[in-house]
Batch of 3 targets.
Target 1
Amino acid sequence: MAFDTIDDAFHYVSNAPPGERRAVVHRGSGRVYLASVKADFDERPAGSESDPAYLNIPHRQELDPGKPLLLEFVRSHCPGELPRIEGLFARPGAYRNVKDHFRRLGLLESWQVFEGEKISERLRQWCIAQGLML
């Protein structure tokens, strides 16, 4: 089973609000089946929701540690900004404000790369924990 297939399905599911899109992978064949509530599209085999041979691909929110990941980035890339970043979390719109701050510091692209790599690592760990061969 190729990780790219799982990764593509993960991005498909994650590029919509949780629950709007779904994907399952057949544990034996590695084949992925997609569904979209909004588009009224569902190629998942009947009964796959309760069949242990199928595994639901997680949404990004299930794997994203949120604030801890962001603080890990700050500690490694701009530790002097840690008090300011922590202060931003005391107000509404923290993630938007932090990203705006990263943009002003010229670190937004570095953050996006870091975040993407960490989420990909977590997806690989999830696959291993589920017994999916990569």
Note: The helical segments are 3-14, 60-63, 67-77, 82-88, 94-105, 108-129.
Target 2
Amino acid sequence: MKSKAIFTLHRLLIATLLVFYLSVFNPVQASSRQVKIKDLVGRVVEVPGVIDRIVCAGPGALRLVVYLEATDKLVGVEDCETIWGFSGRPYAIAHKEFIKSLLSIGPGGPGKLPNDEALIKLSPDVIFMSYIEPRIADNIQSRTHIPVVVLSYGETGFDEPLFKSLELAGKLLGKEKRAEKLLQFIKQVIDDLQIRTENIQDEEKPTVYVGGVGYGGAHGIESTEAQFPPFVFLHAKNVVDEIGRRGHVFIDKEKLLEWNPHIIFIDEAGLELVKQDYQKRPQLYRSLKAFKSGDIYGTLPFNFYATNLGTALADAYYIGKVIYPDEFKDIEPEKKADDIYRQLVGEFIYKEMEKDFGGFGKTDLEKGSIKKVSSG
């Protein structure tokens, strides 16, 4: 009788251990477990404990997934990511063949939402979106019954929301270590730029301006940024900062004449439009101090479907070498750009960016075509 009781107890113990094992290690049960998170617009969203299938919609969402080395989880992509071609977006250049192989989730592009039917058919575990109102995210989630997690770059592309987005997406995708490495790298680069320039006296700094900055498309000299991140990292004297705003702004060309900065940088996404404008009104440009001294320089596109983070950091080293040559004498901007691209997207991208846009160097508007000469 006693042995029978012991046998029964053993069976009960084995059964209990088996249930415990399955509850902890069974991947089916683990993946069905739901967890609640708060996204970057403050929405509480319930998502699977294990996420294997994702799509990205809106400016910049796909870029962050590429940075996190989680492209293997992608099952769909916006049409714009291929229709636009791949130039100007290093994350797309590095993964162009894979991106082309993905199924469509809708047209994409600024202000365009993914297609509900396509989302339902692909059945991702999560939809990552950016630059979208909470109400719209809720509506998509309600219609498709797929969790929508909203990410953000903040106002200037390097604000706290960006870092929180990388942390959140990294946690959800099982890429916490990669997210930590990315954040450390970005912050180390910014620290290096700041340390090199923090002791330069204001009276020793030239005034600077950046024009041609992309914003929902290409624009001319009047398209600029207040608190432009590369300038901020370098403690540079951005003439636009006097307006007291942050982020993108359009100015009157006459205001540029009034500011008359010592050095002008042209974002090469808008370089063709600047050239066309110069041909229409050369006198405006010839009146600028920077034109007379030959201090107009080309930089790689800062914005293209949200901020090109790696390009912004690469531009900062080139801009630093132009403004403060002594502090950046050890820097080869092209090599530094490739080092940054390699860390973020896994490939050396500078040569392709140079081929498409012209690369780092002085810009000669008077020739009728954009000619690169020595970068000073």
Note: The mean pLDDT is 90.
Target 3
Amino acid sequence: MVEKTSVMLTVINDSEDDHIRLTYRADRYTKGVNQYFRYQEQEDMGQTFTLLKIGPDEIRIVRQGDMESEQAFAVGEIRTGYYRTAQGLLSITTRTSSISVQLTEGLGTVFWDYELQLAGEAAGEYRVTLDIRGLDEEEGDSTLV
């Protein structure tokens, strides 16, 4: 049986135009060499559940619910994913230049940067930092802080 623990997951997403910082309460699972984090995103229009898989050579993000998408990141590789819109599927392509995973027992920091293409068109360069910390026992149950 896979053991579940709760953590606070802060996602910092930087691009040329934006700096976004969101914090979630997430469930953490370990399976083999991979860490999995599952959390609920609160959006203006509905709810989305996100599964974040962090492995030694690849990071994968799968969103399901009112918003659906899948992205994968591996250094030096082009990975294809998707973003579902009301009009249909939009192809997402990532080219990752670096990944740094510094986790001890599932806690710590993960960083990666990548170029994004949407439907074959350049959409920018992004830098993502994840800060993963344990929960204090007195923390509330809020999903989005």
Note: The radius of gyration is 15 Å.
